Amino acid sequence: MGIFLNAFLRSIIESITEFLPVSSTGHLFLFSSNFPFTGIENANEFDDLFDIFIQSGAILAVLVLYFSFLKEKFLLSVNYLKKQTEDFSGIQFFISILIGTIPILVFGFIFKKKLDIIKSSENLLLVLGLAWLIGGVLILTIEKFFSTETKTQLTFKDSILIGIFQCVALIPGVSRSGATIMTSKILGLKKDISAEYSFFLAIPVLISASAYKLFKYRTILNSENLIILTFGFVLSFIFSILVIRLFIRFIKKYSFISFGYYRIFLGIIVLIIYFR
């Protein structure tokens, strides 16, 4: 497979799966393990770096789509600190993002070596299959027993709980968005608000990961590689904008049940492949 076709397909996969509760990391692994980049020096390192670039494109899509909202919260925060308003919602929003982000950064740092072992293990397919299967069952269970969705505002306690459960997504196949959205649903938060909070939590998490990987792989950032990386970044950005809009429209009308069945189906297929 040609390099640019490979980059195109990976960008599409990232755009579709990053914000849906299905695990973008797992899908990218399945694709890259069967269709690795070829004809590139340091292919393994480039593979990892490319994933970070397309994830960054997805995050830029969130920043662009929600620019007005984020700007409003920022200005409210500044005005509150200047004592020009008593509206605490801006500060509350950014604190909730900070509280929700800290746990996964801490756990990711502490357990980095063990997580790297899992990702490079020959049993990774088993981990992915089980994660997809169990995650699918949990989605169906939560949809059945936690149908009340009335809250439109997160408390700091909610943010802490969501941040803690987001750490489970460090296990390949779990899905960061799935963990945060389902936790939010258990807490009674409306579906679209849950999804958008998941989008916002992704910003500091993936920016931190991107900064680390860019520094780690700085030696392979030559002009030839940058062309492919930029190509993937732009495609991921464009398609992520479309996917985010469609996803929000979808969950306003429908439940997450279809994602649960998809995960169960994919998990079973992957487990069959593994045991064969």
Structural class: mainly alpha
Helix percent reads over 70%
Taking the sheet with the most strands, its summary is: none
Low-confidence stretches: none
Give the amount of beta strand, in percent: under 5%
Number of helices: 12
Shape: globular
Radius of gyration: 19 Å
Number of strands: 0
Oligomeric status of the shown chains? Answer: single chain
Terminal CA distance reads 26 Å
Number of domains: 1
Mean pLDDT: 91
SSE string, helices as H and strands as E? HHHHHHHHHHHH
Main attributes of the structure:
single chain, 276 residues
Task: Report what the structure shows.
Helix 4 (67-81) crosses helix 5. Helix content is 78%, strand content 0%. The chain has helices spanning 3-17, 24-34, 43-65, 67-81, 89-110, 112-119, 124-145, 156-166, 176-186, 191-216, 223-253, 257-275. It has one domain (3-120, 154-257). It is built from 12 helices and no strands. With 276 residues, the protein is an all-alpha fold.
Provide a brief overview of the structure:
Helices cover 78% and strands 0% of the residues. The chain is built from 12 helices and no strands.
Topology (elements, then pairings):
Layout: H1 3-17, H2 24-34, H3 43-65, H4 67-81, H5 89-110, H6 112-119, H7 124-145, H8 156-166, H9 176-186, H10 191-216, H11 223-253, H12 257-275
